[in-house]
Design a protein that fits this description.
This protein has about 600 residues and is an all-beta fold. The chain has one helix and 45 strands.
Amino acid sequence: MKTLSFVLVACLSAMVLVACTDGSTSNSSTASDIPDFWAPTVLSTTPVDGAVLPSNASISIAATFSEAVDPSTVNTSTFLVAGLTGTVTYSGTTTTFTPATPLASNTSYTATITTGITDFASNAMSSNYSWSFATTVPDLTPPTLSSTNPANSATAVAVGATLTATFSEAMDPATITTSSFTLMNGTTPISGTVTYSGMTATFTPAAPLTANVVYTATISTGVKDLAGNPIVSNYSWNFSTDALFMSFATTPTGSSPEAVAIGDVNGDGRNDVVMTTSSINEVLVFLQSATGGLSPPIKYAITGTASPRTVAIGDMNHDGKNDVVIGDWGSGIEVFVQNVVGGLNPGVVYASTDSDKIRVADLNNDGWLDVVGIGWGTNTTSVWLQNAGGTLNAPVVYNVTHGGYDDLEIGDVNNDGLTDIVVMSGQLYADPNLGILTQKLGGTFNAPAYYSVGVNVLTHGVAVGDVNGDSLNDVVVTYGGNSPSSTIGVFSQNTSGTLDPVVNYTSYDSPSPVEIADVTGDGRKDIVVHHGGWMAMGVYQQLVNGTLQAEKLYPAPYGNINPQSLAVGDINGDGKNDAVIVDVSGLSLLYHY
């Protein structure tokens, strides 16, 4: 812009001196012939004016000019920093002062570029240019650990827990890694990822921890604060994982497992496990032995022609022995009566489309167990009442909305002492999530009352039980996909005999089958959830004040999508409730410690 302006002035002046635009006179001057009358200026500095630097900083101080200057004029006489000695260099359009020693702490400094610096046309700066900066008191205090989670010596830590360590001050994130934050099972390192935010480091194990194991976490001296101070020494703490369930073991079944139930089906007083499979269409009975183990399965062929996708256990002919009832998908229910030698007689089929999910309960208050079933999106439920002859009457059909991928439960949910029917709809956003048919005194059922967890939400499983300690049965549903949408919802029964609006609890990914049982041995019922496809089972322990503890995870098999693929009960005779999960490859057992 200097040259252009000078040419413009020169051309205007040429009206007096010479003609420069008539096309006949040549202007032989060039840009290099035009004198430079413009003085250099300082465009920027490092540090900026007013900056406050780390107390022990070892830095360079620099100024950038508006044009190239004569390097011979740039030296320690023309670039000064009061109170400092150093060297001065020049490159491009920037001059740099490098202090001979680190800056002093808690000190103010003033740097000056003098008029002794000129450009190549010998134009000097119009005046000295000065700027100031300061240093702080040095940070020589090493950081410490303020807290850890789990705490040192913590017990019953969930196997799905993450570890956190909170420091006394902000740390250098680059020093917080899997090398400086470690977790060990004895001498075996646990793999995981480490992140840092605020003043807290988090270790997330790559897989759930093992139950009933003591782990050691360590923060090493490799972690440093922003001033480079490390912690004084390695910091280690121990914790032990929850001893609720052992690692699961799976028994292959050679077919496609569907549903599972627990009960004594051979009359020896010990709980057995009954499972249905759909590819071969069988009922498998795993009898509990005297030593508490499960014997290889006894296989029973079904009489019906459709896949058995649901199973229940109960005395269906009032002879004092438990029988097995299955639902042959879309074609009927089938009753296998226990015989005098502890086996099962061939199934007797009762035709019905309401056979996708079944439950057994006394549904007319006569003291005999009956059967209730729903079909795939049939929008009905059928009730088979047991008669005096030990068979089932023709079904009584009731209307209730449900769209598919449904579930079914029974229980007294209005506190009148009668068993009610709870139908969960798992498909179609237009359908309510729950339809509850309360039992009348005469042994029939009222029209359904409907409840929903929200708009455009599909539920996956349902359970009934007292989960807040008020002696009233509540209704629990699972819904949502992967976290953070994965949820369990609790509809608490109130004193009016209805259900309060849902209260939601955070859940691990894809919660589906859900059961309610006391799995901690404290006399209070807990919520057990299987996370199909995510290799985890979760427990929400009911606390003494009637609230639910955050979900604790336990390693579990892959599972399937059937909401009746989970059962809870004592299957080894030790008085503690175990968990049984139907896996895609077989029957998986999670024994209680």
